[in-house]
């Protein structure tokens, strides 16, 4: 966490993007963006980037957040960290991410590019042909999770299928729906209804309101502030951020003291709702919905929760109390627990990563035997003993020189794989973001923080893990990926994100204002894919950067760029290959040497 | 949108707070989660970017307007009309941008000096 030893001088709001993993801090009161670095620092950064470009590497520097972030804003940064932990640990959100990668890969394949450069897409081989049936299957499965979420604003009274009230006064209840789509399909959904003064208000139990309520609650606990309730239900923002918690408090308020215990139970309930199982095909059809549809899950959890003991931390740790609460609810409902679901997801994610690397890397005979099982129809049987997967995990790229290490999305999927593994080993870890924040910050720092168009690392100081005990337990994880390396995926995915909607342009260029804002523009290099000013062109010429940028690098890596771009940069690469700068460290030392010689 | 609808919408937008208007500039995106005031902050970032780009167009229109066009609703519709041809605004909702500019004060925005 950024040091608070400096007087607070700036405030910021936050956002987290569940596709690109970018956490953006938006400084309050800022009207213009200052140039990123000045003087010597800027010169060094440009030298580093220029040397990297000659080796066809997209290298850029990220730094720690400036000192002086106010405590209020630190709490908002914690809010965004909670979103990241929700994202990496929820099987539902993990599957959405895999589908997003598949969308990007499919678009790259349609452009006759190297779709296999996108990890986890299931597409293998050089310029693979998309297996349309497999892709359709994935898209169908995704729709069973998503459609209720995206159709919420169009719900009509005719789609209501029932209501259940928790009290005779009907002051709080659950409403269920069967939502129709234009294709004639139907998806179940649920939400809360509660009375405020003389009117009734409704809050859907979809992903957004649940994750926002849980994150806001966690933020308030972090700040030790009063827990928020809805005081104006006509305010849509309040309903979004507080509505689900308002509902939970109304059905449980009398059973819990103090309120912080109730908050713990709510955050655990949201975590359980997000821990749905999208893989198993249960015998009872109604279980499919309960296992995959977040809003239906949360409604079922709410109804079951009145029959389990309240979460109590008097005799046990918050983590165990939360895990016990989740397991008791799962037992009542006949669901797999989050730990059990995590075993299946561990196998699934291992399989998706393995598909990307099976032809790229050398595998031990032991790993190949397990690999054959991963490719079979019965691959989920491996969930019974996930340690069997360890030979596969050992074969994954573990440093930047290993072939395949630059495969886009690999670092993020590996991080999710570690999160699944930690769900199994440490039940309740992700259900208690406040009590486990030290450990979660060490294990899973935000990949990158975008602030004023600049990249910052989520640096955590040594106070979080003074004895190194958290780090020791991380050595057992399936894959060790330092936080800043996950940031590389974040930058790549942001640049490629518009491909998922069929737009063949860089994601750093705002689709609303056409303004690019990235590392390159912030160093005065402009965007070669919009209009370069004379000064920007001159700076590019001075550092021999030509049209190098994130998008140029990725269009070369995925081969969706023009042949001219690829040929031009290959010539640059050939000319400089005797400069012995194969690794990022070599590039850095070369830049340092050049910088010092100019001083 | 008919003229009447446009004027009614402008009136509705002008009754909103600045933060509510800023939030309207941020597209609905299921994949992005904001802190409670984060959407307004993002909207401000978008608005700052846009307002720099449209200054010439808006101020030219403002200075060349008929003297009778002085109330906020009329000004909002007028400014929105001048922006409607701006290709680079893409899917950005134009009326909220215009309402924000009017609320900010077009004299201030266009750099007019106060009399006296």
Describe the overall structure.
The complex is a heterodimer of chains A (599) and B (116). Chain A is built from 22 helices and 9 strands. Chain A has helices spanning 39-54, 71-89, 91-110, 132-150, 207-223, 236-252, 259-274, 285-292, 294-305, 318-333, 338-357, 365-374, 390-395, 410-425, 437-443, 469-474, 483-496, 519-522, 534-542, 550-557, 563-576, 584-598, and strands spanning 12-17, 22-27, 63-64, 160-165, 172-180, 186-196, 199-204, 448-451, 454-457. In chain A, the strands form 2 sheets. Chain A has a 5-stranded mixed β-sheet. A 4-stranded antiparallel β-sheet of chain A has the order 4-5-6-7. The model of chain A is unreliable at 1-5 (pLDDT under 50). The mean pLDDT of chain B is 85. Chain B has helices at residues 3-14, 18-24, 38-53, 55-63, 72-83, 94-104, 106-109; one strand at residues 32-34. Chain B has 7 helices and 1 strand, in the order ααβααααα. In chain B, 61% of the residues lie in helices and 3% in strands.
Assembly state here?
heterodimer
The percent range for strand residues of chain A is 5-15%
Poorly predicted sequence stretches spanning 5 or more consecutive residues of chain B: none
* Largest protein interface, residues of each chain: A-B, 36 and 28 residues
Order of helices and strands of chain B: HHEHHHHH
The largest sheet of chain A is: 5 strands, mixed
Strand order of the largest sheet of chain A: 1-2-8-9-3
Rg of chain A, Cα atoms, Å: 25 Å
Q: Assign a percent range to the helix content of chain B.
A: 55-70%
Number of strands of chain A: 9
User: How confident overall, as mean pLDDT of chain B?
Assistant: 85
CA-atom Rg of chain B in angstroms: 14 Å
How many β-strand stretches of chain B?
A: 1
Counting DSSP H or I runs of 4 or more residues, the number of helices of chain B is 7
Number of helices of chain A: 22
> Please, what is the average pLDDT of chain A?
84
As a percent range, the share of helical residues of chain A equals 40-55%
Biggest sheet overview of chain B: none
Strand content of chain B: under 5%
Tell the overall outline of chain B. Answer: globular
